[in-house]
Amino acid sequence: xxxxxxxxxxxxxxxxxxxxxxxxxxxxxxxxxxxxxxxxxxxxxxxxxxxxxxxxxxxxxxxxxxxxxxxxxxxxxxxxxxxxxxxxxxxxxxxxxxxxxxxxxxxxxxxxxxxxxxxxxxxxxxxxxxxxxxxxxxxxxxxxxxxxxxxxxxxxxxxxxxxxxxxxxxxxxxxxxxxxxxxxxxxxxxxxxxxxxxxxxxxxxxxxxxxxxxxxxxxxxxxxxxxxxxxxxxxxxxxxxxxxxxxxxxxxxxxxxxxxxxxxxxxxxxxxxxxxxxxxxxxxxxxxxxxxxxxx
Amino acid sequence: xxxxxxxxxxxxxxxxxxxxxxxxxxxxxxxxxxxxxxxxxxxxxxxxxxxxxxxxxxxxxxxxxxxxxxxxxxxxxxxxxxxxxxxxxxxxxxxxxxxxxxxxxxxxxxxxxxxxxxxxxxxxxxxxxxxxxxxxxxxxxxxxxxxxxxxxxxxxxxxxxxxxxxxxxxxxxxxxxxxxxxxxxxxxxxxxxxxxxxxxxxxxxxxxxxxxxxxxxxxxxxxxxxxxxxxxxxxxxxxxxxxxxxxxxxxxxxxxxxxxxxxxxxxxxxxxxxxxxxxxxxxxxxxxxxxxxxxxxxxxxxxxxxxxxxxxxxxxxxxxxxxxxxxxxxxxxxxxxxxxxxxxxxxxxxxxxxxxxxxxxxxxxxxxxxxxxxxxxxxxxxxxxxxxxxxxxxxxx
Lengths: 296, 397
What we know:
The complex is a heterodimer.
Chain A: H1 2-33, H2 52-57, H3 60-94, H4 100-108, H5 115-126, H6 131-138, H7 152-177, H8 180-188, H9 193-222, H10 225-230, H11 238-247, H12 252-280, H13 282-295
Chain B: H1 3-6, H2 10-32, H3 34-39, H4 42-47, E1 68-74, H5 80-90, E2 93-99, H6 102-112, E3 120-121, H7 125-133, E4 137-138, E5 168-180, H8 191-199, E6 206-208, H9 212-222, H10 232-246, E7 250-253, E8 269-273, H11 274-283, E9 290-294, E10 299-309, H12 315-325, H13 331-338, H14 347-353, H15 366-370, E11 372-374, H16 381-396
Parallel strand pairs in B: 1-2, 1-3, 6-7, 6-8, 10-11
Antiparallel strand pairs in B: 3-10, 4-10, 5-8, 5-9, 5-10
Helix pairs in contact in B: 9-16, 10-16
């Protein structure tokens, strides 16, 4: 009993934190989402409850923004994984251990600058009259001024740039944990380097890969700074319309309904991704389970 | 509560303050304690922001200035040299924060209920009366602002605040557009041309103001409809037109395109306020490629105002600042920086004598002003904001 009490005592700060800053605010948002906006100078009221705000939020005009957001979220996370995995693997496995700290520090360098400032930097680089556009035109790569700013492509570039470190760091930890002796053992047992990578390193690094994907995907779906700065009218995301409901329209009920829908979209898409991942890896898991048992 | 009775009666004033303080305190506790927050229905939570008449005259009475001053205004709307000159001369250190629309300003003040910490706010004319009625603004003490006498009579005693109880003109301007002559090679003269160019040469290169009323104004002004209409048929037509005919051609929504869009030529057709257009064109590497057009046959006239937020922590400094910033001797510097007339008597003459450039984008003739219409705060306000939201969503589809 006392042990249990001590254990609970240790977890208490975390529980209180979660309750106060997570569970309750989300509860308030859900509660507001069933209300309505009574007048211009009040933000919401809950004396009549309904699902009307959800109907509004799912109308064709806003639904397109949800689709757009999902596209940016999935494509951005996939790109971060494709770019981040080799980098993390190289730092963890291939580069000299004495230099690892330096390379990790270099991955972190962008975080020293404010998120917004970094993103506005891209706005200047990508502008049709910016230096990149002039350079590419001079080299004959593109015929006219660069037209990427204020498109979904620019948002994708921005989110990959902004969230890449969040992918590299957990992947590095994961690859680092698959220690050298394990890989050597795999080689001793006759596996080539590709086989070792796919049958030993990747399966053991799986928790890190999942952590990286979640760390990038979830904040990316709610991001509105990158889309505001780089997306213009074409690259808008749900975060922006939620912000404008709270800040400009002052319609907390509709903004809350949109926020709840965004949470549901994220949860549902993660569920779908997990299911796909589980289905896809069935044959692989079968084959290496056999291999490991054979090795034993 | 009748505010007349409270005039000059300190006990009443103290009582009112104590009441609001208690209310604010109660709100904070409510927000802090989750159980209560969950239990408290939205109705209870938000009755606190129901209309409260200002119960007393402005708290400033000519006492010593506080050491700080916080200003919540439109972006890049004061010459920074003048802000530091005020600090140097009078003492208070100034902190400036920016909003994008009146709605955003109101949202912040409503949510803070007198605890926003802002002293000076800069709402546009039609918002003054409803904000004052909803207890968001403090009354001005004009005795502390002797330079009020130097204002151009055109820009005082306006319909939205006939006695200047809550506001003094900060700047006024209008809405038009700028176009890139290297992309649009014909002459554009009004909103009908704007729409035509947006659908043709400037498709995918058109920027609109990120401000609900003037954005919807494009439809009303070009179709000869009063832009203050509350007729649902007109509003529905406006929504259909903006989301279907305009949104597909829009590349960005920006209330300050003079900052990036015009200098970087990110768009070729840009809806813009006159002063911001002037700034943007001057900052362009090749100003010759840009042409400014005043909205026609009709457009808006807006007036932004110096006001003091309810519960302002530094009211003496706020009054001293307003008096400082409307003094005739600082107007040329301020106008050259922001590109708008500040409404002080003799401004045009002063600007001409100082040789400021592009004054046709700062001052307008009587005939031009006759085509400009003031926006009103109507019951269609929320509808206009909804159209603006739908247009932005449609542009991204």
